[in-house]
Structure formats: structure tokens, C-alpha cells
């Protein structure tokens, strides 16, 4: 499997992953197939001690629309008043215009289990859980974009996590991490500036 061609394809896929806000509901894959891909992306994400604590809920159709058209505005209204809803209206409508939302959770029951099993790392497990969720998120984000979708990452979960858990009967131990909105990419990504590579990666000790 290892080859420079595979590495080039991988690089292309991650270079293609960008934040895309201009999304529509145009279908690319049958939804069953799309969900199968998302399952496969999440399955391959690494986790500390292979705890596999990441959980994902995919909202499609009316469920996606209700999230951005009702659940988020209602939560924003309760937390910050009508003004906050008004100020976010355009942005939320943009998310609703997409095809679906991948909601990422971590099952904290499993993290507590790790803390009990390995007390010497107790304080690190919650951090590693977040790292692992980030890894699942980047797999799904890059994977969706390699399938032709556009996606962006949102964080309304602090306001909506409990509502989602009760609506979809999810375990109390699930902790929401983020929401990834995806759809047909109607607009390109915005220009992105990069700092010099040498500021980010330094190599020492070249072999002869
Ligand atoms: C951990 C993390 C949190 C982010 N949170 C948000 C967010 O809440 N809303 C949003 O619109 N973009 C969010 N983004 C997207 C970043 O703004 C975006 O990735 C960054 O500007 C680089 O652009 P690119 O994704 O096109 O490469 C987040 C990205 C990361 C990695």
C-alpha cells in the first residue's frame, strides 16, 4: 500500500479540505452510501489505548433543518436573547442550506473507565479524548471533501448538546464536541494565508 503515489493522493485530499460556507442540498452520493463512508472514517480514527470513545450522529433532511432552523436559534435565544438570534440569522440559514450535519460526541463513561484503570494518566485522558475527537473530525472533514462535499466546523454544542441527547435518546455520558455542516460546495473556500513552513516544522539530526 505504501508508495509516493498514495502519499500524493493523501496530500491532495488534505490540501483540498477547507472551510466551505456556501453549501446547498444537491446530492452527490445516495445518503446510505454517504453514511457508510462517515462510519468508515470514524472507525479508523485513533484513540488513546484504543478506547474508541468517539460517537457520531448524522443529521440529514428534516433533522438537519430542525437543528439549524429551530434547535440552535431556540438555544441561542434562551442563552443570549432575541438579538443574538437576529445577529446569527444569516449564518444559521447558511448552515441550514447544507445537506446535513455530522455531530461529534465523546462517551465520557469510557474516559472515566480509563481514569480508573490507569490512575497514573487520569488527568490526561480527557485531553486525549479531545485529541481523538479532533482526529475523527479531520478524517470526516477530509473524507467528505474528497467525496466532493464541502464542509465547515461549528460549535453550538455547549447550548444544544443536552437537547440533542434527549431528542435522540443518547446516553447521558455523551459529551458533544462539534458539529460539521456539509453539503454541495456552491462557493470556493476563502483565501487562506499560511505562515512560513520553517516556522512550523524543524528537522534536526539528518543522517549522512
Ligand atoms: C478546533 C477548531 C475549531 C473551529 N471552530 C470553528 C467554528 O466554531 N466556526 C467556524 O466557522 N469555523 C471553525 N473552525 C474553522 C477554522 O476557522 C478554519 O479551519 C481555519 O480558519 C482554517 O481554514 P480552512 O479550514 O479553510 O483550512 C474551527 C477549526 C478548528 C480546527
TrEMBL record:
GO biological process entries: cellular response to oxidative stress
GO CC entries: cytoplasm; nucleus
Stretches assigned to the Nitroreductase domain: 14-184
Matches recorded under SUPFAM superfamilies: FMN-dependent nitroreductase-like
Alphabetic keyword roster: Cytoplasm, Nucleus, Oxidoreductase
Gene3D superfamilies, per the entry: NADH Oxidase
A molecular function (GO) term: oxidoreductase activity
A Pfam family assignment: Nitroreductase
Cell compartment(s), UniProt: Cytoplasm; Nucleus
InterPro entries: Frm2/Hbn1, Nitroreductase, Nitroreductase-like
Family that this chain belongs to: Belongs to the nitroreductase family.
This protein's name: Nitroreductase domain-containing protein
Organism, as annotated: Malassezia caprae
Amino acid at each position: 500500500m505504501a508508495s509516493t503515489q498514495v502519499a500524493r493522493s493523501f496530500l491532495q485530499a488534505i490540501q483540498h479540505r477547507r472551510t466551505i460556507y456556501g453549501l446547498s442540498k444537491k446530492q452527490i452520493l445516495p445518503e446510505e452510501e454517504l453514511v457508510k463512508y462517515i462510519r468508515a472514517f470514524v472507525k479508523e480514527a485513533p484513540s488513546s489505548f484504543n478506547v474508541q470513545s468517539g460517537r457520531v450522529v448524522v443529521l440529514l433532511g428534516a433533522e438537519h433543518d430542525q437543528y439549524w432552523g429551530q434547535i440552535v436559534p431556540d438555544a441561542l435565544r434562551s442563552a443570549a436573547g432575541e438579538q443574538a438570534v437576529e445577529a446569527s440569522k444569516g449564518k444559521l440559514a447558511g448552515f441550514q442550506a447544507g445537506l446535513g450535519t455530522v455531530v461529534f460526541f465523546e462517551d465520557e463513561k469510557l474516559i472515566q473507565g480509563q481514569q480508573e484503570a490507569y490512575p497514573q494518566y487520569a488527568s490526561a485522558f480527557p485531553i486525549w479524548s479531545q485529541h481523538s475527537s479532533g482526529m475523527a473530525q479531520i478524517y470526516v472533514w477530509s473524507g467528505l471533501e474528497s467525496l466532493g462535499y464541502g464542509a465547515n466546523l461549528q460549535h453550538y454544542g455547549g447550548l444544544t448538546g443536552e437537547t440533542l441527547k434527549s431528542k435522540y435518546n443518547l446516553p447521558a455520558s455523551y459529551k458533544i464536541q462539534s458539529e460539521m455542516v456539509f453539503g454541495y460546495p456552491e462557493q470556493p473556500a476563502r483565501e487562506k494565508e499560511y505562515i512560513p513552513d520553517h516556522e512550523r516544522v524543524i528537522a534536526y539530526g539528518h543522517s549522512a
